């Protein structure tokens, strides 16, 4: 979903699974569908860990436990705190579709698979890389208080544990930051610069 990024402050879903690969994030059988319905892919997010073979919720999985089973909305559960090496495995873009379709706007981890990280950005989900120490602090804070909030300041590229006040800076590609803050995909960006492109094409140096 295209939505401008500024400051996102939200409660979180802690998914403390290291090497949480794209087959966990969305099982391969969901890739055969041609729909681009966000809800379809959101319902498939972590499907085979969320549900058993009969389609019943797995009680022990965090996303099925209150209050972490809240549907993400403004200020609620829009942030996932993930384990190390989030999004490893195949490069399927559907994994990013599933996360975005579920309503997640930010995934925080100490490391991401590169292709998955780029797919997230293309789907208007911000991947935030923090230190291992900060990642563990966030998990600990949410374990003690499920309604603890994390603040992600995109303009200043900081992520803050609101409970402890601790913050870290995160990196993001300048172009992708601009696109997120303006709710632009690549085509939107080009269209926003139509006048500049047309003016350049009329200059002798462009010939």
Which descriptors would you attach to this protein?
207 residues; alpha/beta; 7-stranded mixed β-sheet; 9 helices; 7 strands; 34% helix
> What would you call the structural class?
alpha/beta
Number of contiguous helices: 9
H/E element string? EHHHEHEHEHEEEHHH
What is the residue-mean pLDDT, rounded to a whole number? Answer: 94
List the uncertain runs.
none
- Terminal Cα separation, in Å? 38 Å
Q: Give the biggest sheet.
A: 7 strands, mixed
Q: What is the overall silhouette?
A: globular
Number of E strands: 7
Q: Enumerate the strands of the largest sheet in spatial order, edge to edge or round the barrel.
A: 4-3-2-1-5-6-7
Can you offer a commentary on this structure?
This protein is an alpha/beta fold and 207 residues long. Helix content is 34%, strand content 16%. The protein has 9 helices and 7 strands; from the N terminus they run E-H-H-H-E-H-E-H-E-H-E-E-E-H-H-H. It has helices at 22-25, 38-44, 47-50, 94-102, 114-122, 132-144, 174-182, 186-192, 194-201; strands at residues 7-15, 79-82, 106-109, 126-129, 149-153, 158-161, 167-169. The protein has a 7-stranded mixed sheet. The N and C termini lie far apart (38 Å). The model has no long low-confidence stretch (mean pLDDT 94).
Secondary-structure map:
Layout: E1 7-15, H1 22-25, H2 38-44, H3 47-50, E2 79-82, H4 94-102, E3 106-109, H5 114-122, E4 126-129, H6 132-144, E5 149-153, E6 158-161, E7 167-169, H7 174-182, H8 186-192, H9 194-201
Parallel strand pairs: 1-2, 2-3, 3-4
Antiparallel strand pairs: 1-5, 5-6, 6-7
Helix pairs in contact: 2-4, 4-5
């Amino acid at each position: 979903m295209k939505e401008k990024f500024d400051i996102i402050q939200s409660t979180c879903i802690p998914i403390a699974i290291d090497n949480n690969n794209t087959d966990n994030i969305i099982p391969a059988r969901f890739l055969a569908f041609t729909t681009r319905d966000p809800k379809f892919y959101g319902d498939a997010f972590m499907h085979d860990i969320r549900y058993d073979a009969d389609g019943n919720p797995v009680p022990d999985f965090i996303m099925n436990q209150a209050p972490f089973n809240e549907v993400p909305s403004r200020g609620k559960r829009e942030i996932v705190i993930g384990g190390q090496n989030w999004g490893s495995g195949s490069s399927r873009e559907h994994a990013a579709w599933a996360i975005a379709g579920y309503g997640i706007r930010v995934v925080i981890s100490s490391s991401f698979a590169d292709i998955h990280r780029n797919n997230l950005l293309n789907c208007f989900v911000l991947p935030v890389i923090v230190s291992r120490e900060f990642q563990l602090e966030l998990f600990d804070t949410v374990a003690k208080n499920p309604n603890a909030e994390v603040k992600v300041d995109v303009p200043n590229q900081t992520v803050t544990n609101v409970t402890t006040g601790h913050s870290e800076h995160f990196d993001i590609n300048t172009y992708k930051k601009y696109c997120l803050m303006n709710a632009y995909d690549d085509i939107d960006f080009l269209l926003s610069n139509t006048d500049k492109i047309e003016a350049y094409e009329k200059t002798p140096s462009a010939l």
